[in-house]
Amino acid sequence: MIIAVDFDGTIVEHEYPKIGKPIPFAIETLLKLQQEGHTLIMWSVREGKLLQEAVDYCAKKGLKFYAANKNHPEEDRATAGRKLTSDMFIDDRNVGGLPSWGTIYHIIQAMERGETSFDRVLMSPGSDQRIIRRKRNFFIRLGEMFERNGY
Ligand SMILES: [Mg+2]
Fold first, then answer.
1. Are residues 123 and 66 both part of a single domain?
2. Do residue 94 and residue 132 come from a single domain?
3. Is 124 found in the same domain as 107?
4. Distance 151 CA to ligand 1 centre (A)
5. How many domains are there within the chain?
6. 86, 91, 102, 149 — which has fewest CB within 10 A?
7. Helix, strand, coil proportions of the chain in percent (round to 5)?
8. Burial 113-141 (b: 16+ CB within 10 A, else e)
């Protein structure tokens, strides 16, 4: 897949125009996706020097994007169509906000398998949501046990 990835608020915390603190597992997950054959494009409001700073930040951590703010390294944005031809966007302004990077990886894997229902993916084994639910259930059960035993 061609995956367009936002920078501020997605790879690092939103401190634009400064570079914020790293968001846990963003770089690691993107490297893994790249190893698995996905093409990553940085898609950011940053331009010029600020865009280069974001690209350099990632490169220093070993993550080299195929292109930044364009479909191909050679694309001339002045004449190219406005639309980015990516299959997916990872952006903190997604509906529902930015999931954890573990969940993002899980969703992409599920989509690769042909699953398209986002809700189903979130509820499938291994997703953070499922783990949160399980943890909550544990505490509810614990509370019920305490109640039963008169604590
Ligand atoms: Mg953002």
1. no
2. no
3. no
4. 47
5. 2
6. 149
7. 40, 10, 50
8. eeeeeeeebbeeeebebeeeeeeeeeeee
Q: Check whether residue 143 and residue 79 sit in a common domain.
A: no
If you measure from the C-alpha of residue 4 to the centroid of ligand 1, how many angstroms do you get, rounded to a whole number? 12
- 112 lies in which domain range? 2-116
The alpha carbon of 10 and the centre of ligand 1 are apart by a number of angstroms equal to: 6
Q: What is the pLDDT of residues 4-28, one digit of tens each?
A: 999 999 999 999 999 999 999 999 9
Q: What is residue 138's predicted lDDT score, i.e. its pLDDT?
A: 63
Do 86 and 146 fall into the same domain?
A: no
